């Protein structure tokens, strides 16, 4: 019989049927007398749990259910998992007779508190603010007085490192702050902001020159730790009215000639020199070597009416509450006090300075 490919138009002959028992065929081997193989649709597990089939001799179970089942665990932590059947909340109106469930709105978030001021001091005003590297560099080169330089935390690049070095050479306070603080003051800060003084500072030698020009014994006012600009302005105003020759303030932990202090002085800074020094204790030693007596206002001192305040004198006034620092008290020649008859144990710094200054003028004969 020729092959079917060689006969065009002819189909492949049908395959002969396999012989069966009716044809006298009987299979040989174990299958001859063994049980018949069960059909695959009987829903029995393929791998029986009572007969292991793996090398570790552990029973295995066929997974015939969905991937996520409610009827038993499937994961290594032996925790049941739920099948994800879509959103649980019913969409659309609720069924009749059932009230609509409304989720209460989330509670309102409380307003964010304002950031604390720098180092616990009163925040500096935004007047006379210099933002950006070039304005600050030019102000330092021109010799303009800078109260404080704020620098963002992090590594300093070339120009910023140069500006910080120039500020430290001039003994300007350099403070590292977060960049968010600078963003609140100016959006174009370039990593640093400076606060310029509202008035130019003088030198201590200028005060001695003013006393010699008037032909009087020098009278100075030294402020230790006064951080309120209004108190500073009031003391400058009282000192100028009492005929003092100058006011001296420290560079750190004290307020400078800010716009608020200049306004509180009512123009007295135009006629009275104000100097700023690095170390008050060292300044007091220099004044004592030049023959100037240093008297500090202290509650444990002598009555100011019984103390001789004539001659070259420097009055030291401290902040309200803290008073004069311990080191400055130890370096002072005398301690004077104002008697108090009320229940409050201290006076305002500007009031105390005004009383002591006019007592000095009284003992000098009002000349």
Automatic annotation (TrEMBL):
<dbReference type="InterPro" id="IPR029064">
    <property type="entry name" value="Ribosomal_eL30-like_sf"/>
</dbReference>
<dbReference type="InterPro" id="IPR029028">
    <property type="entry name" value="Alpha/beta_knot_MTases"/>
</dbReference>
<dbReference type="InterPro" id="IPR013123">
    <property type="entry name" value="SpoU_subst-bd"/>
</dbReference>
<dbReference type="GO" id="GO:0008173">
    <property type="term" value="F:RNA methyltransferase activity"/>
</dbReference>
<dbReference type="Pfam" id="PF00588">
    <property type="entry name" value="SpoU_methylase"/>
</dbReference>
<comment type="similarity">
    <text>Belongs to the class IV-like SAM-binding methyltransferase superfamily. RNA methyltransferase TrmH family.</text>
</comment>
<feature type="compositionally biased region" description="Pro residues">
    <location>
        <begin position="104"/>
        <end position="118"/>
    </location>
</feature>
<feature type="region of interest" description="Disordered">
    <location>
        <begin position="1"/>
        <end position="128"/>
    </location>
</feature>
<protein>
    <submittedName>
        <fullName>23S rRNA (Guanosine(2251)-2'-O)-methyltransferase RlmB</fullName>
    </submittedName>
</protein>
<dbReference type="GO" id="GO:0003723">
    <property type="term" value="F:RNA binding"/>
</dbReference>
<dbReference type="GO" id="GO:0005829">
    <property type="term" value="C:cytosol"/>
</dbReference>
<feature type="compositionally biased region" description="Basic and acidic residues">
    <location>
        <begin position="39"/>
        <end position="103"/>
    </location>
</feature>
<keyword id="KW-0489">Methyltransferase</keyword>
<feature type="domain" description="RNA 2-O ribose methyltransferase substrate binding">
    <location>
        <begin position="129"/>
        <end position="202"/>
    </location>
</feature>
<dbReference type="GO" id="GO:0032259">
    <property type="term" value="P:methylation"/>
</dbReference>
<dbReference type="InterPro" id="IPR029026">
    <property type="entry name" value="tRNA_m1G_MTases_N"/>
</dbReference>
<dbReference type="InterPro" id="IPR004441">
    <property type="entry name" value="rRNA_MeTrfase_TrmH"/>
</dbReference>
<dbReference type="InterPro" id="IPR001537">
    <property type="entry name" value="SpoU_MeTrfase"/>
</dbReference>
<keyword id="KW-0808">Transferase</keyword>
<dbReference type="Pfam" id="PF08032">
    <property type="entry name" value="SpoU_sub_bind"/>
</dbReference>
<dbReference type="GO" id="GO:0006396">
    <property type="term" value="P:RNA processing"/>
</dbReference>
């Amino acid at each position: 019989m020729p092959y079917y490919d060689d006969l065009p138009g002819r189909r492949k002959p049908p395959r002969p049927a396999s012989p069966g028992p009716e044809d006298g065929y009987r299979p040989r081997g174990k299958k001859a007398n063994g049980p018949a193989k069960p059909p695959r649709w009987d829903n029995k597990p393929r791998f029986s749990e009572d007969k292991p089939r793996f090398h570790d001799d552990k029973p295995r179970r066929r997974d015939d259910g969905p991937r996520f089942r409610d009827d038993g665990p499937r994961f290594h932590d032996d925790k049941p998992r739920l099948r994800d059947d879509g959103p649980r909340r019913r969409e659309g109106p609720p069924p009749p007779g059932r009230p609509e469930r409304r989720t209460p709105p989330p509670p309102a978030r409380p307003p964010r508190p304002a950031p604390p001021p720098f180092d616990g001091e009163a925040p500096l005003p935004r007047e006379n603010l210099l933002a950006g590297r070039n304005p600050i560099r030019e102000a330092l080169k021109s010799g303009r007085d800078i109260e404080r330089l704020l620098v963002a935390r992090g590594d300093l690049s070339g120009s910023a490192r140069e500006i910080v070095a120039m500020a430290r050479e001039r003994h300007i306070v350099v403070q590292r702050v977060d960049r968010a603080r600078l963003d609140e003051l100016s959006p174009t800060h370039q990593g640093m902001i400076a606060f310029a003084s509202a008035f130019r500072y003088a030198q201590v030698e200028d005060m001695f020159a003013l006393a010699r020009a008037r032909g009087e014994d020098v009278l100075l006012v030294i402020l230790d730790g006064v951080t309120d600009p209004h108190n500073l302005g009031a003391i400058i105003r009282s000192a100028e009215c009492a005929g003092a020759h100058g006011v001296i303030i420290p560079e750190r932990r004290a307020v400078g000639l800010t716009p608020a202090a200049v306004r509180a002085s009512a123009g007295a800074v135009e006629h009275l020199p104000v100097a700023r020094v690095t170390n008050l204790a060292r300044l007091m030693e220099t004044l004592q070597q030049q023959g100037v007596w240093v008297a500090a206002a202290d509650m444990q001192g002598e009555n100011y009416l019984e103390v001789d305040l004539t001659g070259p004198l420097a009055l030291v006034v401290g902040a309200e509450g803290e008073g004069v620092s311990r080191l400055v008290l130890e370096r002072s020649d005398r301690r004077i006090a104002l008697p108090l008859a009320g229940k409050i144990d201290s006076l305002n710094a500007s009031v105390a300075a005004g009383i002591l200054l006019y007592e000095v003028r009284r003992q000098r004969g009002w000349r």
